[in-house]
Amino acid sequence: MELDVVQLTEDIVAINSVSQRSNAEISDRLEKTLKQCSFEVERLEFVDENGESKVSLVAKKGEGDNGLGLFSHSDTVPGMEEHWEAFNPAIEDGRLIGRGSCDMKGPIAATIVAGAEVDATKLKKPLFIVITADEEITGLGARQVAEESVLFNTTPPKHGVIVEPTRLVPVYAHKGGGRVVVTAHGKAAHTSTDRGISANFLIAPFLAEMAELAEQFKTDESFMNREFDPPTNGFNMILDDGGCKPNISAARTVCTLSFRPMPNDRSDDVIDMVTAKAKKYGFEVSSTRGTPFYISPDAEIVQAGLKATGVAKPETVPFGTDAHVFKDYLELVILGPGDITQAHTVGEWIEISQLLESVEVYKRMIEMLCM
Length: 371
Known about the structure:
CATH topology of the largest domain: Aminopeptidase
Number of helices: 10
Low-confidence stretches: none
Distance between the termini: 20 Å
Shape: globular
CATH superfamily of the largest domain: Zn peptidases
Helix content: 25-40%
CATH architecture of the largest domain: 3-Layer(aba) Sandwich
CATH class of the largest domain: Alpha Beta
Number of strands: 16
Number of domains: 2
Strand content: 15-25%
């Protein structure tokens, strides 16, 4: 089956698959297309906390072991339709415009078109195309694939490409995501009675200490990793007192502190330091930490990416991907068309020349690692 990467991108951009909705419609379309391209397709489903049906696809062409996987996700961030025609794709000045064109329906289309052109009889190792659900919000699709997919786990690929937009520069590392949630409890009362206890006043000394930590994290090299730009962990703080009115003392204030863990950057110490300061004041505290991704720049898959693109040196990126889930199963590189600065924006676009070139890059990698 012959496919056009631009047309396929337009077709799936036109399908609204915002993470807060079901992605069944786009998954149905992609499953049909993959089957028409001689892929065996496995469908994995779950229902999210809002009752929406979510679908991930695992497609395989060829037999054997130690193949190559091309990994993407079919959900997008909200379309912000009030500002533009998010799901009405358009082509202007060599760019394909529409929500998800860059992150990451263009890259999805490129993997399918590259895979469609492969003759299964010439494959010595299998080719996988994996398209997950909910990468933008929970990552549950990737975890379900890793834990439950029969196709993926029976003969797992040895190498993989996460096709997030990197301007077709191979990427060997990215940051993770960390969060500490601190809650102070006061007592609500009308300020005229002077009988309330403001949670905002209770938490204020803690916030001052967080400001000091923020400065430390920006200046202390032991909390940084110079392989990244920026090398700092992006320590941030937001507050929520439930929209308390000025004439009411806040009964509850939640402080959410977030940061981006990097390899060898004292991320565990960040959580411990914040937690200790919160407990000193008797506040509730909880934390989570998503691990960063790192593979040696000399790894076979990174070198294959360099050879396929002609790029001299791999890079790192500050954003996260499904690689943090799949990194324990196979060797990965992040390599896709488009520029991440376009992702999640009003007027999101991808250069058509990048789309076309990415198909050729993925075909070269398939030839190197599967034939």
